[in-house]
Amino acid sequence: MGDAGLLIDVPSPFASFPFAWEQAAKSRGYLCVAGVDEAGRGPLAGPVVAAAIVFPDYWHPEGIADSKALTALQRDRLFQQICEACAYGVGVVSAGEIDDINILKATHKAMRLALESLPVRADYALVDGLPVLGLPIPHQNLVKGERRSVSVAAASIIAKVTRDRMMVALHQSYPAYGFNRHKGYPTPSHIRALEEHGPCPEHRRSFEPVRRVCGGSR
Is residue 192 part of a domain? Predict the structure, then answer.
């Protein structure tokens, strides 16, 4: 399994340069560096989704940033560009499994699945947030990684757009909850629908207020 790394470092002022962290890893002998991020840790319903991205050496994109800082239209445009130019993998862990193993372990599993589904063999990963357990390759965790690594920012876009589209599709099966609007996050309208209709199979019963609506049971 991959260890969390103090394996690379990018000294200031170079840390803000495009691909600085990727190049630093390659300078230590790694050949294929992936950026990894997730979407969907906080919602009350739906899966958690992670993405892993490996950029080609020849492609230098414009406009890639933290998915949360982009509009839906910008994310959709960049999603298409990234998918066409980069090697990418996606990992999905369902709401039921989130309840079984907890959201932290589910997030780590989604990241592992994303790396394992890459069509190329990455040998190092840059991961948003805190160190991750169970990755198949060494990794460097980057707090606020979407702002520090282009690869991590691209992974955040793939994960977010993929999950949002899944939630829109789930709306067709469970229209009472408005998943197409809030994507499962705990908005006031979602809470009202949950209290009125009770949870559906896609709700995370280990999360408040779903657990409260269920009377504390799962």
Answer: no
Domain assignment of residue 25, yes or no? yes
79 domain-assigned: yes
Summarize pLDDT for 160-187 with one digit per residue, the tens: 999 999 999 999 999 999 999 999 999 9
Q: For the chain, how many structural domains are there in total? A: 1
> Do the domain assignments include residue 186?
no
pLDDT tens sequence across 52-74: 999 998 887 788 887 888 999 99
Q: How many residues does the chain have?
A: 218
| DSSP codes joined into one string, the chain | -PPB-------TTGGGSTTHHHHHHHHTT-S-EEEEEEE-SS-SBS-EEEEEEE--TT---SS---GGGS-HHHHHHHHHHHHHHSEEEEEEE-HHHHHHH-HHHHHHHHHHHHHHT-SS--SEEEEESS--SS-SS-EEEETTGGGT-HHHHHHHHHHHHHHHHHHHHHHHH-GGG-HHHHTT---HHHHHHHHHH---TTB-TTSTTHHHHTTT--
Q: What is the DSSP string of 63-108?
A: S---GGGS-HHHHHHHHHHHHHHSEEEEEEE-HHHHHHH-HHHHHH
Q: What is the pTM (predicted TM-score) of this model?
A: 0.91
Find the CATH number of the domain harbouring 39.
Answer: 3.30.420.10
